[in-house]
Amino acid sequence: MNHYKRHSVALHTFLVSICFLHSACQLKPSAYDHCIFDERAGWIEFDISSDRRAALLALPYEDATVDQSMSFNGRAVREAWFKNQEGDLQMCRYENIADQCDSDAYLLLFNNNQGKYQPETIETVLCLVHYRRR
User: Fold this and answer.
1) Does residue 74 have a pLDDT over 50?
2) What is the rounded CA–CA span in Å between residue 32 and residue 41?
3) Residue 17 pLDDT greater than 70, yes or no
4) Which residues are registered as beta bridge partners of 7?
5) Residue 93 in contact with residue 70, Cβ under 8 Å?
6) Of the listed ranges 1-15, 20-34, 36-50, 63-77, the one predicted with least confidence
7) What's the CA dihedral at 108, 109, 115, 116 to 10 degrees?
8) In this predicted structure, what is the pLDDT of residue 38?
9) Pick the residue with more confidence: 34 or 88?
10) Which residues of 18-32 are buried (b: 16+ CB within 10 A; e: fewer)?
11) How far is 31 from 87, CA to CA, in rounded Å?
12) In the beta sheet, which residues pair with residue 79?
């Protein structure tokens, strides 16, 4: 390969890489990305009614309510609700920023016991070199 073609191929590869990275950075991750839910695992995102949401957020959690315990201290956050076939619910509050690895997220499982929900432990989502764990 001559010198000109080699540089042309390298430049083209570089430009394609930059375009891909730029467009990937412009897309905001979904709630599944922030909350590390695998859609194939049976958790389905759903719109919760305002009455049901208010009742669940008012449940006691340690020395406060669920809502107070999952506070981001005034920072703007999004909230997503998920359900499974057993009727359990998960709530996730997260910062809606482009890099979900830099976004803080809190998760809380509500176990369904004959129609009554009990909040479990609040989990903080951590990112280890762009591999998210909870």
Assistant:
1) yes
2) 11
3) no
4) none
5) yes
6) 1-15
7) -60
8) 64
9) 88
10) eeeeeeeeeeebebb
11) 20
12) 93
Which residues, other chains included, contact 46 with Cβ-Cβ below 8 Å and sequence gap of 6+?
A: 81, 82, 83
Task: Give, in order, the Cα–Cα distances in Å from 41 to each of 5, 12, 65, 85, 86.
Answer: 48, 40, 29, 10, 12
Query: Got the DSSP string for the chain?
Result: --HHHHHHHHHHHHHHHHHHHHHHHHSPPPHHHHHT--GGGT-EEEPPPHHHHHHHHTSEETTEEHHHHT--TT---EEEEEE-TTS-EEEEEE---S-GGGS-EEEEEEEEETTEEEE---EE-EEETTEEE-
Q: Choose between 96 and 67: higher pLDDT.
A: 67
Report whether 127 contacts 29 (CB < 8 A). Answer: no
Residue type, 9: V
Distance in angstroms between the alpha carbons of the first and the last residue of the chain: 49
Whether residue 17 contacts residue 9, with contact meaning beta carbons closer than 8 Å, is answered with no
